[in-house]
Write a structure and sequence with these properties.
51% helix, globular, six-stranded parallel sheet, alpha/beta
């Protein structure tokens, strides 16, 4: 019998620094990559928390010139990217530092793509559409969730279509990723919870992906173990540096898993909620995860049963399907314990958004086009996706 060819990639930054005080390395690492005047891409939350000043003080001490773009919004847009590109060129920058969570990193990646390749950010929607590498790039993470500081994913909202564009491109993988728990101490409990559940979603979706490998499995399993042991303490006490550091490793490992095994319909559907209503990504994922996992269960019973064991559930003597269902219980319990809303309507109310069933048809159509759904273990039709949205309401 002929063997079908299948090549698996594994993408990570060239260098990763994790640990207390790692941020002190930023000026030296930019110089190591050949940068002399970086554009720092960040947001007003980072500015208000005093984190930007911590980094610019380091650059000032190193006598390094820089420019700051601090207008990134929680779901970064095409307008953010093109505004950042204009500033990069006007200030004659030659490198990038992204500072923040997934929003800042995604915006910076988009800026880098356009700076190096020309055109508009819309030109790069899809997989590996660019030809040239990004400028020298150091991604400095301040949340433990998205892992965008180390991935080849870039998610940008197209304002005209109200759609999140999924850009998957190996060129946007940062040259150096940096995770310093000291930058995360001031992260509020709700954000800690949302980003932690985002990391869990990455790990679970990668673990049941159709292109999972032994390498991604190892990363996903350890990430899930760490999240179930350290997310609750990190939410309860933001000053718990041990919990913060363990969540740094957890979200990075989850990033290694999904950066290479990709994701599934949780993300395909969550992207539409972010694009349509501007709802926060991590909480959308957290709410959808048990519902999509329930749909996927029969396709990967053994995998979900193993997840239940990793999550600390007692599965001895249970039939595989019963053990698998325990993983859904564990996800729901963790989500509730860290304060995630019970459904999409409640989430919308929290942020002043009117989440309506009448919008499900357009979100379903867009979710079915999202590249993240390609590796979902069970192929849903439009009615399936709509039913999941309704169940999650």
């Amino acid at each position: 019998m002929a063997v079908q060819e299948q090549v698996y990639g594994f993408f990570i930054p060239s260098v990763t620094l994790v640990g207390i005080g790692a941020s002190k390395e930023i000026p030296g690492k930019i110089r190591d990559l050949g940068g002399k005047k970086p554009l720092i891409v960040t947001d007003q939350g980072i500015v208000g928390a005093g984190i930007l000043k911590q980094i610019t003080d380091l650059l000032d001490d190193a006598k390094m010139k820089y420019e700051v773009y601090d207008k990134t919004i929680p779901n970064p847009t095409d307008a953010n990217v093109h505004e950042g590109v204009d500033l990069y060129k006007k200030a004659k920058c030659d490198s990038l530092i992204t500072l923040g969570g997934g929003s800042s990193h995604d915006c910076g990646k988009g800026i880098g793509l356009v700076v190096s390749n020309g055109g508009k950010i819309h030109d790069y929607e899809g997989v590996d559409k660019s030809k040239n590498p990004l400028p020298p790039y150091v991604a400095v993470n301040t949340t433990a969730g998205t892992a965008s500081e180390m991935t080849r994913f870039c998610i940008i909202t197209d304002l005209s279509r109200k759609v999140k564009m999924a850009i998957v491109d190996w060129h946007v993988t940062p040259g150096i990723a940096l995770d310093d728990p000291l930058l995360m101490v001031g992260m509020p409990p709700a954000l800690t919870a949302a980003t932690g559940m985002d990391a869990l979603t990455h790990a679970v979706e990668a673990y049941v992906s159709t292109i999972a490998t032994p390498m991604t499995d190892a990363c996903a399993e350890k990430a899930i173990d760490l999240i179930f042991n350290y997310l609750r303490p990190a939410v309860a006490n933001g000053g718990d540096l041990d919990a913060r550091e363990k969540m740094c490793f957890a979200q990075y490992l989850a990033g290694m898993a999904f950066n290479n095994a990709s994701l599934g319909h949780v993300h395909a559907m969550a992207h539409q909620l972010g694009g349509f209503y501007d709802l926060p990504h991590g909480e959308c994922n957290a709410i959808l995860l048990p519902h999509v996992s329930k749909f996927n269960l029969i396709a990967k019973v053994d995998r979900f049963a193993k997840l239940a064991e990793i999550m600390g559930e007692s599965v001895e003597g249970l039939a595989p399907i019963e053990a698998a269902e325990k993983s859904l219980d564990a996800i729901r319990r963790l989500s509730s314990d860290v304060g995630i809303p019970s459904g999409l309507v409640e989430l919308g109310n929290r942020y002043g958004k009117d989440v309506k069933e009448q919008d499900i048809s357009i979100m379903t159509a867009n979710a079915q086009k999202d590249a993240c759904g390609l590796t979902n273990p069970r192929r849903p039709n439009d009615n399936d996706v709509a039913a999941i949205y309704k169940a999650a309401m």
